[in-house]
Specification:
Blueprint: E1 10-12, E2 44-46, E3 61-63, E4 65-70, E5 77-83, E6 90-99, E7 102-111, E8 118-124, E9 127-134, E10 139-144, E11 147-153, E12 160-167, E13 172-177, E14 180-187, E15 195-202, E16 208-220, E17 228-231, H1 237-240, E18 245-248, H2 259-269, E19 273-277, H3 280-283, H4 293-304, E20 308-313, H5 336-353, E21 359-362, H6 373-390, E22 395-402, H7 406-418, E23 427-431, H8 440-456, E24 461-464, H9 486-502, E25 506-509, E26 515-517, E27 520-522, E28 527-529, E29 535-538, H10 540-551, E30 556-559, E31 565-566, E32 572-579, E33 585-591, E34 603-609, E35 617-621, E36 626-629, E37 635-638, E38 641-649, E39 654-658
Parallel strand pairs: 18-19, 18-25, 19-20, 20-21, 21-22, 22-23, 23-24, 24-25
Antiparallel strand pairs: 1-32, 2-16, 3-6, 4-5, 5-16, 6-15, 7-12, 7-16, 8-9, 8-15, 9-10, 10-11, 12-13, 13-14, 17-36, 26-27, 28-29, 30-32, 31-34, 32-33, 33-39, 34-38, 35-36, 35-39, 37-38
Helix pairs in contact: 5-6, 6-7, 7-8, 9-10
């Protein structure tokens, strides 16, 4: 199908640079590309930043004026294709080896004008199979077979983040631009059973300049021989409506990220809530004077995109003596003047946003700052009372604690309850950074906090309020000392979020964008950034979380302690969900025994679900979004007991879902 666009966890043992081909002409004659032979496809990764300006790109072939150059108005180097002739080719090329596997190609493309044909292709030896292009009339377009598909306008001198997912096995492809799926199930232009190269360039008939950057290709074999049905259709936050899946947009109060840069990706992710830090010090730079301009713009824009802000009341403000710390690990305000100013700011903030914000969190990680639990409890009660005075129906969380600190939670709740103030607390927020997101200890501590809530603040809920993994080694912040990749980050996010959702826990992906601390980069973002905080591209984790958000929303309910048996030789993590209206199920399963790795090798397992509810089950790899039919020969049902055979399982969540519970 072409879509042109503008619970509980049960663990049981029973159970060389890839080449890129840039073509000179997008319409008309096809340029044949020499095949690299039957060798398995390699991964291509070309950023060009280490190449001297004016030099050719190592590992690339080209015709015409093709060199690496600094790009005016940007902070990095890119491959420039400058065409000054209407009779000669201007191309650059690289090959990644003939493969029958699915090819995922990501790159950034920029045209210096809107009056030339510029584009990129995925090719076989027979020619162009998948194309995305910019026309000389200012339009983006692609092809469904021989039919040209318009994708809307483009703007000169603007980078476009493009992702192609091409499947030789079905001769179809999906196209994403700036995190939005713009077409799905595109038929290949040229009949082929394999792909060999990526190609792009400026049309022979036109003159103009184009830039290419961040070229990345990966080839991945199908996880199963089961029939491929398509891919999960992403849904915007507005389309999802409500869910327990949130995303973090922290540190805007300290300008470590740029909201305007990533705003277009926010609603497209599908998460329906966003965590923001209120920024007292950024709002009140002169005593008694509030400048809300920066926060107004963010709150209004997020709300317009269908993403509900969850505002954190923190940090301190250095213009007041005893005003507390204005960043991570900062102390709460302590002086009489500072506390009065804090009270005034809190009251003013709630008044200003009460029609747009209903959820509030008081302070960030007080236990990390060494603030005694009793001191924090008093501060929480003081602040929460002011929030409730202005907004009686407000939902208030605390303490946003670092890790899962059961003793701290206990002391906080005991103090709050002892003062008769537990009614001010609607939820406990925690930040459980663990290399293995499925570590048994994590959810043991969660259960202990649940018990404390039931004892001291009945009715309050749990929220995983901040948690993520880096996408590269040597990242600043939690877990930064481990050897992460974009692949292992993706698996980590999916495991944490799916596990939490299966436990009925509201859960947040930290963070939407990489964070630029002073002289340090925290690469936990779903979006990779440039040094100026602009967006380079959506990481694989972005698309994976996008898929999860499209499937697990408020139309499903978690099935705690979902039972199963398996013949798997390794311990599996299983989370069950059911559609509220039909009862049809979605069951997530993965190997959660270790920290996520970089292998995509699956092991076929037998899975028996004694309380299953499926009429037409399908298999979904959440990481890739790919959906496969489960043939009748590989599943049986007896009463409510469903047994599935040859289910490909690995260390990233896959789903067995009733077909009625998903959208392609």
């Amino acid at each position: 199908m072409v879509n042109p666009a503008p619970s509980g966890s049960v663990r049981s043992r029973n159970g060389t640079t890839v080449p890129l081909l840039l073509s000179a002409a997008l319409v008309g004659a096809l340029i044949s590309v020499a095949s690299a032979g039957p060798a398995a496809a390699a991964n291509l990764s070309s950023t060009f930043d280490a190449v001297a300006p004016g030099s050719p790109a190592p590992g690339w072939t080209s015709s015409g004026d093709v060199t690496v150059q600094d790009v005016t108005g940007t902070v990095d180097r890119s491959l420039r294709l400058r065409d000054v002739s209407t009779t000669a080719n201007t191309t650059a090329a690289a090959t990644f080896g003939t493969t029958t596997s699915t090819v995922v190609a990501g790159f950034r493309l920029r045209a210096a004008q809107s009056t030339a044909t510029v584009g990129v292709h995925l090719d076989s030896s027979g020619g162009h199979s998948v194309t995305v292009a910019m026309s000389p009339t200012g339009r983006l377009y692609t092809y469904d077979g021989a039919t040209r598909i318009d994708l809307g306008t483009y703007v000169a001198n603007r980078w476009y983040d493009i992702r192609l997912v091409a499947r030789p096995g079905t001769a179809t492809a999906d196209l994403h631009i700036d995190g939005e799926r713009r077409a799905a199930g595109l038929r290949f232009r040229t009949s082929t059973t394999d792909l060999a190269s990526l190609q792009a360039g400026v049309s022979v008939a036109d003159t103009g300049t184009a830039y290419l950057d961040d070229v990345r290709t990966t080839a991945e074999a199908s996880p199963t021989a089961w029939p491929h049905l398509g891919t999960i259709a992403p849904r915007t936050a507005a389309q999802v409506g409500t869910s327990q899946l949130l995303v973090g947009a922290e540190t805007l109060d300290r300008d470590y990220t740029n909201y305007q840069a990533y705003a277009p990706y926010l609603g497209r992710l599908g998460a329906t809530g966003v965590r923001l830090q209120g920024g007292w010090a950024k709002t009140e730079k002169t005593k008694g004077v509030y400048d809300w301009t920066w926060l107004d713009r963010i709150v209004d824009d997020a709300t317009a995109r269908g993403v509900r802000p969850w505002l954190q009341l923190s940090y301190g403000n250095g213009i007041y003596t005893g005003g507390g710390g204005a960043g991570l690990g900062g102390q709460i305000p302590t002086s009489t003047e500072a506390l009065a100013a804090w009270d005034a700011w809190v009251t003013a903030m709630v008044k200003r946003y009460e029609n747009r914000v209903t959820e509030w969190e008081i302070w960030n990680e007080p236990n990390l700052a060494g603030i005694p639990a009793a001191t924090y409890a008093d501060f929480f009660a003081r602040t929460a009372a002011r929030v409730r005075a202005e907004q009686p129906d407000s939902v208030i969380y605390g303490p946003g604690e670092a890790g899962i600190d059961v003793p701290y939670t206990n002391d906080f709740l005991v103090r709050l309850s002892g003062q008769g103030k537990s009614h001010l607390l609607d939820g406990i927020s925690y930040h459980p950074y663990n290399p293995n997101p499925d570590d048994v200890w994590t959810y043991q501590q969660v259960d202990r906090i649940r018990a404390l809530i039931n004892q001291y603040a009945p009715g309050a809920v749990l929220r995983q309020g901040e948690n993520g993994a880096p996408s590269a080694p040597n990242s600043f912040g939690a877990l930064g000392d481990l050897d992460w990749t974009e692949l292992s980050q993706t698996k980590w996010f999916l495991r944490r979020l799916t596990h939490d959702l299966g436990q009925g826990i509201s859960t947040s992906a930290f963070s939407i964008s990489d964070l630029h601390y002073p002289s340090k980069l925290n690469s936990k973002g779903l979006l990779q950034t440039n040094s100026d905080k602009s967006i380079r591209y959506a990481k694989p984790s972005y698309y994976a979380v996008q898929t999860l958000a499209a499937v697990i929303d408020s139309s499903v309910t978690a099935l705690p302690a979902y039972p199963f048996t398996t013949d798997s030789a390794t311990t599996l993590t299983v989370q069950g969900f059911a559609k509220r209206d039909t009862g049809r199920q979605i069951v997530g399963v993965w190997n959660g025994t270790t920290t996520p790795g970089d292998s995509t090798t699956r092991t076929p397992v037998r899975l028996t679900l004694p309380n299953g509810d499926f009429t037409d089950p399908v298999y979904v790899d959440v990481r890739t979004g790919a959906v496969f039919d489960i043939p009748a020969a590989d599943w049986t049902v007896s009463g409510s007991t469903h047994t599935f055979r040859n289910v490909p399982v690995y260390d990233s969540p896959v789903l067995i879902a009733d077909r009625s519970a998903i959208r392609l």
